[in-house]
Structures are given as structure tokens and as C-alpha cells.
Amino acid sequence: MAAEFDVEWEHVLYRAKQPPDLTEVFELLPKWRHLTHAEHVAPGIYLRLLAKSEQITGAGQNPDAVPLEDMQAVIRQRLGQPRCINRLAKCDRPL
């Protein structure tokens, strides 16, 4: 993980010099701050993330994915919202 950060950091610093612009530096730091925190909380998570990304890219889809409709139903249930999204459709509960 540190080696990947070093490569990205060197690239961003090089680009920041021509012309002088720190935008990419400011974008890189929060990304890696998030990743290092996640790694601290759950060691090995970064490598698992990379492996999962490679699995999804290779297969063209996520084999563990939940259908969108199922996820929306879970969200609606947690928020206590009606089943329909379209205001003209019949809902489980009126809007």
C-alpha cells in the first residue's frame, strides 16, 4: 500500500509543478487518508478491495451484488417510505 501511495504521490507532485497547481495534491490526500484509516480499522482491507475490484473487472459484474430493486426496498423499509417511486403509480401507502 505504501509503495502505491509513493508512486501516486511522485506523479502528483510532478504534475503539480507544471504549471504550479496543487489541485491534484488536494484530491489525492483525502483519498489516501480514507484508505489508511480503513486499513487501520480493518487490516488487509485495501488488498481485499483490490482483489474484489479485479474479480469484478474480470467477470464484468459483481457476483455478490444485490439487485437494485432489493436494495431500494431495504432503504425504503429503513426510511419508512412507500413502495412506489413514481408519484402517479399506486403505492403501498399514500404519499
Describe the structure.
By secondary structure, this protein is mainly alpha-helical. The chain is built from four helices and no strands. Helix 1 packs antiparallel against helix 2. The longest helix is centred in the middle third of the chain and has 19 residues, at about 25-40. The N and C termini lie far apart (about 50 Å).
Layout of helices and strands:
Elements: H1 2-16, H2 23-41, H3 45-59, H4 68-79
Brief sketch in words of this structure:
By secondary structure, this protein is mostly helical. It has helices at 2-16, 23-41, 45-59, 68-79.
Largest sheet entry:
none
Oligomeric grouping of the chains:
single chain
Separate helix tally: 4
Span between termini: 49 Å
> Using DSSP, what is the number of strands?
0
Order of helices and strands: HHHH
Mean pLDDT, as a whole number?
86
Helix content: 55-70%
Strand content: under 5%
User: What structural class do the secondary elements suggest?
Assistant: mainly alpha
Contiguous low-pLDDT stretches (5 residues minimum) are none
Backbone shape? elongated
Radius of gyration: 21 Å
Features:
95 residues; 4 helices; elongated; mainly alpha; single chain; 0% strand
